[in-house]
Design brief:
The complex is a heterodimer. By secondary structure, chain A is an alpha/beta fold. Chain A has two domains: 214 residues, Rossmann fold, CATH 3.40.50; 74 residues, 2-Layer Sandwich (Alpha-Beta Plaits), CATH 3.30.70.260. A six-stranded mixed beta sheet of chain A has the order 5-6-7-3-8-9, sandwiched between helices. The radius of gyration of chain A is 25 Å and the shape is globular. Chain B has one domain. The longest helix of chain B is centred in the first third of the chain and has 30 residues. Chain B is globular and about 60 Å long. Classes of the chains: A alpha/beta, B mainly alpha.
């Protein structure tokens, strides 16, 4: 079980104005700004649960993963994973952990993946039989058996990612951090990896924390979703809630040429937020309120090109993530 | 402990496999690190001896000086390894992340990698000494070479810790390349790589004895070549053990402070 309580993390980042003068000045005196990467984050994840961590770049997803995996320290708060504090980096904890980083290779670049696997066998002290069985099973399921003896740098991006996954799962980890495992991959490779992970989860039942910018990854793999914005978790719950919400919402779009002065007030009264781009206006609205709002709108304003569309999941998530941080 | 030793050898093995991947680089490396130093040192010292018109300088004949220069150059390369900058790069680019996930000691794992790069120079040195022994060397003995090699291996460990100490500073200052070059120059000067320490003023020689540098290279090479040395094998060995403990403790201290600064860039 993972229990994160009120975790915060700040980084000190150097700040420098552009230009030669400020570059020279920085030789003697350097200015720093404090960046709040995580702000009082709390979350609990039960055994066998798979959670999708979604947020814009810089929202704090990767920082959270790095804290949970013991790579970096936290400024404040408590973390307990399977009874361990990850920052203590105990071997007993790290033996049960796997981190798959879509943007960072872990395998030895110039050597065939099989060489790296043999090293991992020693690092994790995997018994011979279990190692052979796992390697056979994983490489067959990911269709990379023939590439095991090819230097990693000679593999395609998709094949390399599959090799990384094999490396991470050889020791049967109980906790798996997947950081953008499908980034940059073609649709076929993305599908293959998703399908493999889905099957693996059913068979082995590990805790998985998946961060991804691809909603398809989240929709297919994660029954639970945590949305992060500016270092905070702004939504933590079933993915189905978001899906249902997207089913209940409509976007009302129209053009308005004249008399737009009272339009803002009109939507404010109805507690709706309108987006205005020149003469094009759009409003997100619950399907049950649509007919009343529409009737009032047509009675009060001269509008044209009126249309309503269903909202997709991405847009609902975007609405969570796009609000300005409070304070 | 058994696991640590096993991981050390696994790391050494995988790094050797890495080195052997680049066939061309390997063989050019063999040529450039053996033939060229011999040729350069021979031509350099020959012209010095000729211009001065002397047979010996500070107890070194021309052939003795060329042999010393070659041995100390190769030992120096073995001690500082070709791995310079590898830890700083791990910290700067975030390569450290993967090692922090593994249930191993980073310091132990990287020592294996460091030794793999040094191993090539140990073999180089031994092959040259073997060749020298059969053609010219009646001074060399198996015992002197063994003692010298043991000391050079211990010096390698000390310099590994010095490398870690300087490169761990990347946790704070991000770029430690110049500091690494500075350390290398200081050790080169104090270790007699530029010229034998007997050429230095006596005060400088005495001052250097308060540092680990002469014990890293100069005296081990004299012992290896079976030459007269101010310190016996055991004395030199004792000094190396002492400095090994000191540098290990400093390295561990810096790591324990620096890990809080690490931001794990790259993922």
């Amino acid at each position: 079980m993972i229990k994160v309580t009120n975790v915060s993390k700040t980084f000190k980042v150097p700040r420098k104005d552009p230009g030669l003068k400020s570059a020279f000045k920085a030789l003697f005196k350097r200015e720093y700004i404090t960046k709040q990467a995580l702000d009082n984050v709390s979350i609990e994840i039960k055994e066998g649960e798979i959670i999708g961590l979604v947020g814009a770049n810089g929202a704090g997803k990767t920082t959270l993963v790095k804290i949970l995996s013991g790579i970096i320290s936290r400024t404040d708060g408590d973390v307990s994973i399977l009874g361990f504090d990850p920052w203590k980096r105990e071997d007993a904890y790290r033996s049960q952990l796997a981190l798959i980083m879509g943007q960072k290779a872990q395998l030895w670049w110039d050597l065939p993946a099989h060489d790296s696997y043999l090293l991992l066998k020693e690092i994790y002290q995997i018994p011979n039989k279990r190692f052979e069985d796992n390697l056979k099973l994983l490489s067959e399921k990911l269709f990379v058996t023939k590439q095991l003896h090819v230097p990693v740098r000679k593999l395609s991006l998709g094949e390399r990612m599959k090799m990384e996954i094999v490396a991470a799962l050889l020791h049967d980890p109980k906790i798996i951090f997947l950081d953008e495992p499908t980034i940059g991959l073609d649709i076929i490779s993305q599908k293959a990896i998703r399908s493999f992970l889905s099957q693996y989860m059913k068979e082995r039942n590990p805790i998985i924390i998946l961060t991804s910018h691809y909603m398809q990854d989240i929709e297919e793999l994660c029954p639970r979703l945590a949305l992060m914005r500016a270092g905070e978790i702004v939504y933590d719950g079933p993915l189905n809630n978001i899906i249902n919400k997207s089913g209940a919402l409509r976007t009302l779009s129209f053009d308005i040429d004249h008399e737009r002065s009272g339009l803002g007030e009109f939507f404010d009264k109805k507690e709706l937020t309108m987006n205005c781009n020149e003469n094009k206006v759009s409003v997100q609205i619950h399907k049950d309120e649509l007919s009343i709002v529409l009737k009032d709108l047509l009675n009060s304003f001269n509008v044209s090109n009126l249309s309503t569309t269903r909202i997709d999941i991405d847009s609902v998530i975007e609405s969570y993530l796009s609000y300005e941080k409070k304070n | 402990m058994k696991k640590r030793i096993n991981i050390f050898f696994q790391s050494l093995s995988i790094e050797l496999r890495n080195i052997f991947v680049y066939q061309f680089e390997f063989w050019v490396g063999v040529l450039s690190t053996t033939l060229i130093p011999i040729l350069v040192s021979y031509l350099l010292w020959k012209s010095i001896y000729e211009s001065r018109g002397v047979e010996t300088m500070n107890g070194f004949s021309l052939s003795g000086m060329v042999l010393y220069y070659f041995c100390i150059t190769i030992s120096w390369k073995a001690v500082f390894s070709k791995a310079s900058g590898f830890i700083a790069r791990d910290i700067y680019y975030g390569g450290l992340n993967k090692y922090l996930i593994y249930p191993i000691s980073y310091l132990n794992f990287k020592l294996g990698e460091y030794f793999a790069k040094s191993l090539f120079f140990y073999v180089n040195l031994l092959l040259f000494l073997l060749f020298y022994y059969f053609y010219w060397g009646n001074d060399l003995t198996i015992l002197s070479v063994s003692k010298g090699m043991i000391l050079i291996i211990f010096s390698t460990i000390i310099y590994y810790f010095i490398t870690c100490m300087t490169e761990y500073l990347t946790f704070w200052v991000e770029n430690t390349w110049s500091l690494a070059i500075l350390m290398r120059s200081i050790v080169g000067f104090g270790g007699g790589v530029l010229m034998p320490l007997s050429f230095y003023p006596e005060t400088v020689q005495n001052l250097l004895h308060f540092t680990p540098f002469p014990f890293l290279l100069y005296y081990p090479v004299l012992i290896l070549l079976n030459k007269e040395s101010s310190f016996s094998f055991l004395e030199n060995f004792g000094v190396l053990i002492f400095w090994n403990i000191v540098f290990f403790l400093i390295t561990r201290f810096i790591w324990n402070k620096g890990k809080y600064q690490y931001s794990g860039v790259g993922i």
